[in-house]
């Protein structure tokens, strides 16, 4: 147990930092609440898996996955895909906003026909 204490501390600290980063940006009250709850549950589950590695193994065996590490990998893949999709949707929304701002700016600063000549 003592030989694993260092890595557990590093992993738990990393999870704490990531958890804080995930809950800081806010959009709407409901979305923010759901995001915070989801992030805290993810961080709590990861902390439990780090402190008690036999739990993911038992869960993996219960649901038919060979090893706890495989179960964690599958969860990571799902979380990664969700993150990519959320980022894509956000990027699409921001691109539309930038386009609208650029059009408004172009219209606002366009020279009038009588000023050209």
Task: Describe, in plain words, how this protein is organized in 3D.
The chain has 117 residues and is mainly alpha-helical. It folds into two domains: 1-52; 70-109. Helices cover 86% and strands 0% of the residues. The protein has helices spanning 2-23, 29-51, 54-63, 68-109, 113-116. Helix 1 runs antiparallel to helix 2 and helix 3 (54-63) packs across helix 4 (68-109). The longest helix has 42 residues, at 68-109. The relative contact order is 0.06. The mean pLDDT is 78.
What key attributes describe this structure?
single chain, 117 residues, mainly alpha, 0% strand, elongated
- Total strands: 0
Largest sheet: none
User: What distance lies between the first and last C-alpha atoms, to the nearest angstrom?
Assistant: 83 Å
Mean pLDDT: 78
Helix content: over 70%
Total domains: 2
Number of helices: 5
Rg calculated over all Cα atoms: 23 Å
**Judging from the principal axes of the Cα atoms, what is the shape?**
elongated
Order of helices and strands: HHHHH
What structural category arises from helix and sheet content? mainly alpha
Q: Which segments are poorly predicted (pLDDT under 50) over 5 or more consecutive residues?
A: none
Percent of residues in beta strands: under 5%
What would you say about this model in short?
With about 120 residues, the protein is mainly alpha-helical. It is built from 5 helices and no strands. It folds into 2 domains: about 1-50; about 70-110.
